[in-house]
Structures are given as C-alpha cells and as structure tokens.
Design goal:
Largest sheet: 5 strands, antiparallel
Strand order of the largest sheet: 2-1-5-6-7
Oligomer: single chain
Radius of gyration: 24 Å
Length: 501
C-alpha cells in the first residue's frame, strides 16, 4: 500500500509538478548567473557587500549590542560568509546542478531544500535586482515543493504516491492568492483604466519589456481591448474560486489560469513568471485527467505509478500548514478590507519571518501606467557631442523591433523601466550605475548591447527621458518604425567622477 497520508489520485500530478518546478529553478539560476557579476559582483552596479554592510548597520542602530546572528535574521543569505564573484557564481552553479537533479527526479526533497536556501540567499543579497513578485513566488512555491517531494534519495521512477492532501491544498491556496490578489488590487486601487476597462489600450506599449506580440496586440480596436480587459478581470477575480471546487470544475481553474498565462506570454516578457504560474496549475489536475490527456495524444504513454513510501508525516505537516495559513491571513487582511482586525502577536511573527519569504503578498499592475518614459543614457568626452549606450532588451532605436527575451529576465533593462517612472529623481542604484559607466567596468558593460567608448570610458554621462509610443501598422509600413518618440526632459544632468558638471 502507498505510504500513509499520500494522495494516489494525484501521484502523476505531483510527479509532473516537481519536475516542472525544477525546470523553473533551472531557468531562474541560469538567467541570473549570466548577469550576477555585473549586477551584484565585486565590481558590479551594487555589490552585494554594500547591501550586507547596510543591513549590519541597520541592526546595530536598532540594537547596538545585538549579536551577529541578528543581521542574518534580518537578511538571510549565505553571502554573509563570502560575497565575492567566485562565491556568487558558486551559488548560481550549485543552483543549476540541483535544479537538474529535481527535474530528473533524483533526491528531490533535499535538492529542493538546498535550492530554497540558495535562491533566498541571492534574493536577499541582490536588493532591487532580484525583488520581483515572481522571485518571492518561486521561493514560496519552492518551500511547498519540499513538503510535496518524496523523501527517497534515489531516482523517483516509477512515480510513487502523490503529495499529502495538506500540501496539495496549500498549493491551491497559493495559486488562489496569486490570482485573486492580482485582481483585487486592481479594483481596490481606484485606477480609472481598470474601472473603464481601457487598461489594455495602454498596457502593451507601457509594460516593462514588450516584444513584437505586444505591438500586434496594441493594434486591436478599442472594443476588443475592453473585452480582453473584462476577460482578464474575470479570470483573476472569479475563476480562482474554482480552485477549491471538485473536478471537473477544478480543471476549469487550471485551464483558465493557463489561458491567461499564455496570453501574457504572447504579449510581453515576464521572465519565468508564466512558467511558474503554469507549474502551479499542474496539481489542480488529477491523474484521471492526465491519463485521459495522454491517451488523446498519439505516441504519448504516461509513466506507471507504483506504491511506495509515504512523504512527510502529518504531525509535521499540520503545524507547518497552520503557520503558513496564519501568515497568509496577515498578508491578505488589509487587501480584503480587514485592516482593523488584528490578531495579537501576529504582526510581530510576520515581521520576524518575512525575510525568509515563506508567505508573500501578491498583486500585479494595480495601477496602470498610461505613458512610457524611456531612459536614454549617453556619454561624452567634451560635453557637446554625446553618444548613446545601447541596451540589449529595452526600447532604444525606434526602428528596432521589440525583442523576445522570455524565459530570460534581463534585470538591468527591467529595472531601468522603473527608474524612468521616477521622472528626474535618480535612485541610489542608478547613480551607482552611472559611476560604473564612468569607470568603464567591463562586468557592467557586459550587461549592455554596445559600449560606445571601447577605448576608454567617457568623461561625462547623463540620462535623458523620452516618451515612447507604439506606431500603427501604416506608420511602420511606411517608415519602418515600431516606436514614435519625443523628448521629455532630463533625468540625470551630466556627471563626471567626483562632481556634477
């Protein structure tokens, strides 16, 4: 007989989900590995050691005699031991190797536990560059996957019993919170574009990194845009409740969520977010449906399922599940209008555990940006002749088509979108970025598509703001331009090393 507490109706679902999550981890670590030295390395934009030093100072200000482990609780990362380039690359390399083990079905529980520690370490040490909602979603899903994984160290073949129902329902609850919160924040924000269903008339051209699919979607007429917006709100606000319904209704939640993820994937670059959300849909589908799907696809034969040892015992899962549910209530409380309802001690518990990203708040695009300011970073040797730095992924040359980057997430290009929205108020990390350009640091320049000063760094750099708008089909056909641009103003006046000009 299968192990006590296993869920044999979802054995294949668990088997597929764990492998899918291993692949998502693989994408996340590979994508960050090729950028880590330029972002947070020793000679990167914001070296990890700077963030660690700031965290240590913050702890000492709050508690002058606090022991060293207090700083670790405030910023849990293995980088406290070493944060040089080699150590950061080792973290990424170890993550890649462990993700391959999970995808192959070998020693999944310990490998997933190590992956959680490694990715949390990078998130904690990376500041703005690794702080997006899908980064913390991967950590939360990754922690639950530890509880869903079989405890055997060998190859998980054939698939053994499924995850305990407690774990499966925690995964359902995570997917529900992700989708429903994303819909609810749109309504509660009071943003007029959501209420008038005109959001998608702006979204495709103002999102962080559109690709060609976004340009084509922007050409749809207003009635189609309004219908698409209404469909999105329905998928986020109504469909998530089917997560808790029995099959086949639960299949509808999986299919609707998958539809939304494919539509997002077809119109914009969001790194591994769509893949991760699709992976979270897998546990909604029981083995009966997976077998039916396999039978409908010629040549596809599902793996056999055999009885095996059980997973984590209920006496351990129950308190962990209770803790996660309580923490998630604290995250949802203000969103659903229960801000005045407080459980004594819960805010303190949440504050202590928040750095470990076990439970997180979600809600994408609560307020829609209706304009697209774009940064133009330039360098000069004489202050009169300026040459632009060219980026790999973000809009630049109006004739260059928007590029497909998914599942890779170019962290610098993404962060520059947020920086442009600050409109003339440069952030600390951006000031450091300009300094790195003036210093000509190769690790940072490697993040760009082209360095206009290959022989020696410029004496001055500046950042100007332009307005970018998608062209229509007629304009693109006649001019070859994907974007209409006009100058908005100055984001950062010319600066040199040590002084403004």
């Amino acid at each position: 007989m299968p192990g006590a507490g296993s869920d044999d109706a979802y054995a294949l679902a668990t088997w597929v989900f764990l492998r899918a999550l291993g692949l998502v981890y693989l994408v996340a670590f590979v994508s960050f590995a090729v950028q880590v030295r330029g972002l947070i390395g020793e000679r990167g934009i914001v070296p990890a050691r700077l963030l660690l030093e700031e965290a240590r100072r913050g702890v000492r200000r709050a508690r002058p005699r606090a022991p060293r482990w207090r700083a670790f609780l405030a910023l849990p990362t293995l980088c406290w031991w070493r944060a040089d380039d080699r150590s950061l690359l080792v973290l990424c390399g170890a993550g890649i190797a462990l993700a391959l083990l999970v995808a192959a079905g070998v020693a999944q529980a310990p490998a997933l536990a190590a992956l959680y520690v490694l990715y949390l370490s990078l998130v904690s040490a990376s500041g703005v560059f690794l702080g997006y909602q899908w980064d913390v979603l991967l950590l939360e899903a990754g922690f639950l996957a530890i509880l869903a994984a079989p405890l055997e160290l060998g190859l998980d073949w054939p698939p053994g019993p499924g995850a305990h129902p407690v774990v499966r329902w925690l995964l359902y609850w995570l997917l529900f919170r992700l989708m429903f919160s994303s819909g609810l924040v749109k309504l509660r924000s009071g943003d007029p574009t959501w209420r008038s269903l005109t959001t998608l008339e702006h979204h495709y051209e103002t999102q962080p990194l559109p690709h060609r699919g976004g340009w084509w979607a922007h050409q749809l007429p207003p009635p189609a845009q309004k219908a698409s917006t209404a469909l999105m709100l329905a998928l986020e606000l109504v469909l998530p409740f089917l997560v808790f319904a029995p099959p086949p209704w639960r299949y509808g939640a999986a299919a609707g969520t998958a539809l939304l993820m494919f539509l997002i994937l077809a119109t914009g670059n969001y790194g591994f977010f769509n893949l991760l959300a699709l992976a979270l849909c897998i546990p909604l589908v029981d083995d009966r449906a997976w077998l039916a799907l396999a039978g409908a696809l010629p040549g596809l034969r599902p793996p056999p399922v055999e009885a095996g040892a059980g997973g984590w015992p209920l006496w351990l899962l129950a308190p962990v599940a209770a803790l996660l549910l309580v923490l998630s209530f604290e995250k949802l409380r203000p969103l659903v209008g229960l801000g005045g309802l407080r459980v004594p001690g819960l805010p303190t518990l949440t504050r202590v555990l928040d750095p470990f990203r076990l439970v997180n708040g979600y809600g994408l695009f609560a307020v829609m940006t209706t304009a697209r300011p774009e940064l133009r970073v330039e360098g000069s040797d004489d202050g009169s002749s300026w040459r632009p730095y060219r980026f790999r992924w973000k809009p630049g040359d109006p004739r260059r088509p928007p590029r497909w980057a998914m599942p890779h997430q170019p962290r610098l290009d993404w962060q520059l979108w947020f920086e442009a929205l600050r409109g003339g108020r440069p952030s600390g990390w951006f000031t450091l970025f300009l300094e790195r350009l003036l210093e000509g640091r190769p690790e940072v320049l490697a993040l760009l598509a082209e360095d206009p000063f290959p022989d020696a760094p410029p004496r001055l750099v500046r950042a100007e703001l332009d307005d970018y708008r998608f062209t229509d089909r007629k304009t693109r056909r006649e001019t070859g331009r994907w974007w209409r641009t006009r100058r908005l103003g100055v984001h950062q006046p010319p600066v040199s090393l040590g002084r403004d000009e």
